[in-house]
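dumping the sequnces here before i forget
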Amino acid sequence: MNQSMRVATLFFLVVLAAGCASAGKSRTSRLTAGDILETAASVRQSLANDPWLSGRGNESPPIRLGISEAVNKSNDRLATSDRWALTALVVYDRSVQSLLESRNVRVHLPEETQAMLGRMGIGSDGAPAGAVGGDAPTHVLLADVRSISRQGSAASSVSDERYDLYVIDYRVAELTSGRIEWSHAAQVARRAFGTVAD
Amino acid sequence: MNALVSSMARGANGSAHARSAIARPPDRIDGIRRFGLWASCVVAASLSMAGGGCAYQRDEPGVRLVQRGEFGAARQRVRETATSDPENRAYILDQMKLVSLGLAEGIPDAAEMVADRLNDRLRTQGLNDDTRFASVMLWDGATRIYKGDPFEQALAYYHIALIDALRGDWGNARAASQQSLFLLRDFSGALRSAGGTRDSDDAAALVRAAALAEREGKDGDALGVDYIAVASDFEAGYLLRAIAARRLNEIDDMDEALRILRQVSPRLSPLASLISEGRYNTVFAVDHGVAPEKYGSGPDKAVAARGAITPSDDAPLVLSIGGESSQWPVATDVNRIAASTRWANLEDVRRAKSAIGSLLVTGGIITAATADDNDTQVMVGLIVAGVGALLKASSAADIQHNELFPQRTYLALADLNAPVNRVELAIGGRSPSRLVLPDVPAGPRGGLALHYIRMPLRPGPWAVADVPRYTNDVSIRRGDSALGDVLPYILGGRDVQSPSLAALRNYQASGYLAGFSVDDLIDLYREENIRIAGLDGTWEDVGLHVLEGGSWLYTPAPASTAYKRLFYSDHPPYRPRSKRVESLRQQIQSQHPRAWIRDGTSPDPGTPGRAERRIGGHSVRIGDSRRFNPIEAPAWTGDVRCSFSCRTFPGVCHDDGFDS
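..and the predicted 3d for all of it:
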């Protein structure tokens, strides 16, 4: 390659390099499906270690645990399916089901709710073992999603980084009294790169 | 100009060839010639892209449709050309238009999926980071992905929030409202200290300051002009966020939104107090006018400017319900924010500055290259010729914009007690508009309903009409079925409800379609290739309504402009496409000769009609009054005389007096 071509090649490599600078980094700080799965896993762990469940046995008074769609109080829109997944994936988890059954807690999931979740692609492999409809639930699993958002830049005067910390507040409430039996806050941090406004 | 620049490039190539032919051997000459040819091709191709991209073409027919309140037809226009490729530069612009028009057409379910995709793209960062440098070298139109000026992004989030609120999803409505309230860059302090301009929000002053910054080597790819981040003054976003937060019982969040609103827009303090007090169950979100035009101004049209299409004024929205009127101030004037440098993406200014920088860099290459190598000098000369031409060609500002957005927004509150309300909306000022909505449902007790109304600027008589021309899913549910005599539009009647068991019972109670099942009824629509929203395909597929010559059956939200336009104006009689429906239509015509719209023509809408109604097997005679409103009619008992237009219920019109 003669010198002319080398200079030309170098010139266009510079152009290319400018475009590749942010490749491989996340460009959105929205919650992902992977985040929701991780959240469900952390809830599972918290439930297993919590005195509310560990203090119960299979002879304890029965509990029928319903679920409710998570309430979005975050700074970002959440799809309806994501909001349901945040609570449903907890009770659809087999290890959670085993844990609940051993503490005489039955998941209360009416057929229509199961069908709706199925249409959203949640629990397509079937309802939780031992799920019951019929009688009204005695307890309900609730979740609120909140978030803190920050954006700025380390090197430029144009914001090109955004950071969102999502906090998902889980709780099990006793329906008659409203008493909170168990609570857990799961956190998900998401960071995204690239000019925010453009 | 492209041809001129191309010839300049060819000229440069030719002269270089002539010069180097004296001192270089033939193989060397061929190499340089090849390179010259290559460079010329690059320049020509680039200029071709520049010329091919051209300036953004506004959808003027779409704007006129929006001004007339014909949002379905405007939406159909956009749908027909919208790209489905998220990487396409027009993707976000198309989605913005579809969201706004779906909202205006009163079909939030159809707009929701689009809103999800739009939200996803708006929340994706750095869409143009890969092209920033290249866009200086090539015309932006060829490479840039439209994400909208910040004010357009705010409006898009606001419309997404309205769709969520219309669907009762207040969590997402609050979130989308919050997204519309991003911080803004305020350059006014720096501009004042740099010598001062009469208007510290002046785009021209910013261009000068940016050019100065470039000369001083400040902040390569950004503007290089100091700014402070300030709170958004997008008033509508704060109002909707506060309303949604209150609905979610997030009182602290509501208080924060209203506190900032009072700071940025003290004139809206009374409205903020009403939101805080919470004595309302219904919110009216009203948009009016069309957004300002974006165009290139200054030398080479390099700096983007905005010009109002619908002029700004302070005319309040007058809301009249049950004899009581209230006035509501303009929440956000889009003309105002569009004209502010705070709300512009300033890509035009940045590009002007970057172009200067690129020329300086290129100049550096020249200096280095001219040292001792003639070949390199030739090559660099070609590049410089090309770059110079490209910069000239690319100097025009990117003027893509959403011409279908509104010019202003209002938010009004009401505490409605009646289940169905007659609501009149009027906006005075320089662009007056009036709309009567006879079928507005109240919010649920203890709950909250939001209605979205896009006011038409030049509507037909339907805007203020009180007499419905067609029954539909909403009116039938409210009890019109008790009036009997409903016949599907496709069979010559005036009913456009979706096929269902209830609909079939209505038809059969009127003496039509005896022996039909619901499936038979649906098959009639299938035969006509008419698709039913919620039953066929997805809501997003919903296109132009069958009443307006399309092939879709849907009922817009009852408090929407589209509901009024579709069901309170006359449309041409339906012309069957299938033999089966045509045959059935003729059969009904022969069996019910008086229950028929004269073929091919509609009766005069002002003609008083005399009619017979059959309710529960009893005949009830109706005649001779002009202002019968079937929606508000009491239960039928015995002989009733009232008035209505033949066109209201063609199936029961008589021209020859009372029937026996």
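The two ends of chain A are 39 Å apart (CA to CA).
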